[in-house]
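Batch job 17 of 40 flagged for manual review because the log was empty.
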Amino acid sequence: DGSVRLHLLVDRSSVDLFANDGRLTMSNLVFPDWESTGVSLFTEGGSARVSELLVYELVEEVDDPADTEPA
């Protein structure tokens, strides 16, 4: 049916794409303006339909010395 399942991970400096459960992968370094907060989807030379889009905000994990046990 031509469907493609995509998982896209975006952070401040990289974009990682996993298509059809990892059968195809791509990674790219990006250098957007620091204030940039958007993501856009587009096609070239055709059309596409997004049937479902889930967005999760990734939160930076900070190591807390109080969470570690002494050696």
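Reviewer: the log was empty due to a logging misconfiguration, but the result itself is present. Strands lie at 6-10, 14-19, 24-29. Unflagging and moving on to job 18.
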